[in-house]
Write a structure and sequence with these properties.
The complex is a heterodimer. Chain A contains six helices and twelve strands. Chain A is an alpha+beta fold. Chain A has one domain: Roll (T-fold). Chain A has an eight-stranded mixed beta sheet with strand order 1-2-3-6-9-10-11-12. A two-stranded antiparallel ribbon of chain A has the order 4-5. A two-stranded antiparallel ribbon of chain A has the order 7-8. The longest helix of chain A has 21 residues. Chain B has a domain of 40 residues. The two termini of chain B are 34 Å apart. Classes of the chains: A alpha+beta, B alpha+beta.
Chain lengths: 248, 180
């Protein structure tokens, strides 16, 4: 499907052949994920599983692992993130994008470079920073004025944002099966982009009522922006500039 | 400490687009990656001049926050030019490609084998208001994706995801015209 992924690598010197080799491997991870999980490709293992042509046991191990992780995310979010509730059969692609980007980043981690940032269509996974001891800063798009930033966060490794301002109301409330979006946008930061992405989707659908679910997690923080522009964050949300405007 | 800063975002944007549609083209681009890197940040920033805009953040209740200066990644296609790039800069416009709400084409500028700018050359959505809204929102973000590494104060942008198949197809077509 049409998603643009960018890789930014930061180091003292130009990348060596071994770094470039790892970059190729990292890109391959994305394409393997696309091959395995695309719902647009008729013959992808996931498409075949959805049609009932194959069993889970006949699918690549990653398919089972991703669905297991989706189930973890479903439980953590009290069912607000639920790939099994979507029309057309189980669709973990909302999790897969972040999962694949995170895996891709983990390949680059082996390179020993100072920092790397993978941006998968607005969800970022990173390690290190642009300079020694400096974390990556990620701008969060203002849902009410999408050419501007609502705030800037220091990335703890993963930053995911979900909302309906880009693609209309495509989010489905798993509890009703109908489109719903109770927040203008939801951003989740944390240690893993797959889970951050799933949590952001859950918060965008559920709105404020689900914020305590993320507050309860040690590794993740969240920002919800209401339709009236109000910010709501968990206690330790790593915003750079919004401290005077948040409520929690 | 040296501040060598390797920016390969632009090219990898192209790669990702290419990879989605044509594995042959990918290999060609990967072969050129070693020539893609830029040793210093200044080399890359000559191609773009981010606008600095003062904005007030949304806020609730009675607190009166100080205005916050936010560096905004360039969002218009015309402000980033090829003129400041090295003399090897070349541009091509990809084929007009259907996307969800109309037809668009992508212009790509390269310096050697490095992509220095990606922008929308034309877009026709038939005047549909919803479509126009999506264009305004998503097209600048696609451009930001390609160029965000060149912003001084942030290294990336996080926002609701968008579909971009048409963007990629036209981008691939433009890169093909440049022999990349």
């Amino acid at each position: 499907m049409g998603t643009i992924v960018t890789f930014d690598l930061y180091d003292e010197d130009e990348p060596s052949e071994s770094v470039l080799s790892l970059l190729r491997e990292a890109i391959d991870v994305l394409h393997q994920a696309d091959d395995d999980f695309s719902t647009y490709k008729h013959d992808s293992p996931l498409s075949r599983l959805r049609r009932g042509d194959v069993t889970m046991a006949q699918c690549p191990a990653d398919v089972g692992q991703v669905l297991e992780l989706c189930n973890v995310a479903r439980n953590i979010t009290d069912g607000w993130f639920d790939p099994w509730s979507l029309p057309g059969g189980v669709d973990p692609t909302g999790y897969v994008k972040g999962w694949a980007a995170q895996r891709s980043l983990d390949v680059l981690r082996r390179s020993g470079i100072r920092g790397a940032l993978v941006n998968a269509a607005g969800d970022t996974a990173s390690f290190g920073g642009p300079h020694a001891g400096v974390p990556f800063r990620i701008g969060i798009v203002d849902p009410a004025a999408t050419q501007h930033l609502a705030c800037v966060v220091e990335s703890p490794g993963a930053v995911a944002t979900s909302g309906t301002y880009e693609r209309g109301c495509h989010l489905i409330d798993p509890h009703t099966g109908r489109p719903a979006s109770r927040a203008a946008s939801a951003t989740v930061t944390g240690s893993d982009l797959g889970l951050a992405d799933a949590f952001a989707t859950a918060l965008a659908v559920a709105g404020l009522q689900a914020l305590p679910l993320v507050e309860a997690l040690d590794d993740f923080e969240a920002l919800i922006i209401d339709y009236d522009g109000t910010f709501h964050t968990t206690t330790d949300f790593p915003a750079v500039r919004t401290s005077s405007k948040t409520s929690s | 400490m040296k501040r060598a800063h390797i920016v390969i975002a632009g090219t990898v944007v192209g790669l990702a687009g290419l990879l989605s549609f044509n594995s042959t083209a990918v290999n060609l681009s990967l072969g050129s990656l070693s020539a893609v890197t830029v040793p210093t940040r200044s080399t890359t920033t000559t191609t773009t001049t981010p606008a600095t805009t003062t904005t007030s953040l949304p806020h609730s209740g009675g607190s009166t926050p100080p205005p916050t200066t936010t560096r905004v990644v360039p969002t218009t296609t015309a402000t980033t030019t090829t003129t400041a790039a090295p003399s090897t800069a070349r541009s091509a416009t990809g084929a007009a490609t259907n996307y969800s709400y109309g037809v668009l084409s992508v212009k790509v500028t390269v310096s050697g084998t490095k992509v220095t700018n990606v922008s929308i050359a034309s877009i026709d959505d038939g005047g549909n208001p919803r479509s126009a809204y999506i264009d305004q929102a998503s097209i600048p973000l696609l451009e930001q994706q390609a160029l965000s590494a060149q912003s001084a104060s942030i290294q990336g942008v996080s926002g609701a995801s968008y579909t971009s198949a048409g963007f990629e197809q036209s981008l691939q077509s433009a890169l093909s015209k440049l022999g990349l």
